[in-house]
Amino acid sequence: MYVDAHAHLDRYGADLGEALAEIERGRLFTVSVAMDPPSYRANVEIAAACELVLPTFGVHPWNASAYAGRLGELREATAESPMLGEIGLDFRFVDDASAYPAQREVFEFFLQAAAEQNKIVNLHTAGAEEEVLALLRRYDVRRAIVHWYSGPLDLLDEFLAQGAYFTVGVEALHSEHIREIARRLPAERLLTETDNPGGEKWLTGSPGRPSIIKQVVAGVAEARGVCADDVVRDVAANVARLYEGDAGLGAWYEKFFGPGVADRNIG
């Protein structure tokens, strides 16, 4: 089964029905992350209509200013969600430094919740890789998915030592830097994503379709010098390893990947 570990299905708008049909035809297990409480509620509704969709709650750093000082409003959804994301910091696309304190406040709220509730976090790190890593260490969060990492290569090993997994997505089809990251990642920490529909649109101007995950897998396989089936197998095993034994996620991996997937050889 293909895994899209980071998408925004609520942003498909009028094309959502077609996107869900494509997910179901291709049996594409899709984690749909939230930007804020309204997008989380939308993703929960989407997941009710498609069993292949896992909705998760977070507040994206671009939206953090709206929720700083209102953290109590986030507690119920935070406790309900089986995973927390999309959360993090963004110092690259947000160039107004006055917004950074709000980003930190909201991000640290989620990291503390992740530590207390033993939940996986799905991270945005653009331009803030060193600070995100330092905060993971401060809160002792050791189950993190670093989404679309494009930062310095010399930080990869430090994130890996903290237990992080990394998604590689559509930019692997366009960027040598991303392909180099894909080559360097250990097979046992590799995940795939699309960031649909916006990831492909940002790169090419056309919204991404769910089946583009197959092109991502092919691109990652080419970069790593392996076959696409190896990447599919490794990613499935990694999701299983992350989810196995998790109170909120354990049933997902057995339902979609089968018992024992996490123990299969990685290569």
Give a written overview of the molecule.
The chain is α/β, with parallel strands linked by helices. The protein has eleven helices and eight strands. The chain has a single domain (2-263), classed as TIM Barrel (Alpha-Beta Barrel). The strands form two sheets. A five-stranded parallel sheet has the order 4-5-6-7-8. The chain has a three-stranded parallel sheet with strand order 1-2-3. The radius of gyration is 17 Å and the shape is globular.
Whole-number average pLDDT? Answer: 95
- Proportion in β-strands: 5-15%
Characterize the overall form: globular
Give the helix proportion (percent range): 40-55%
The CATH topology corresponds to TIM Barrel
- The gyration radius over C-alpha positions equals 17 Å
The CATH architecture comes to Alpha-Beta Barrel
What is the number of domains? 1
For this structure, what is the CATH class?
A: Alpha Beta
Distance between the termini: 17 Å
- The SSE string, one letter per element, is EHEHEHEHEHEHEHEHHHH
Uncertain stretches:
none
**Which oligomerization state do the chains in this entry correspond to?**
single chain
Major sheet: order of its strands? 4-5-6-7-8
What is the name of the CATH superfamily? Metal-dependent hydrolases
DSSP E strands, number: 8
Major β-sheet profile: 5 strands, parallel
The number of helical elements comes to: 11
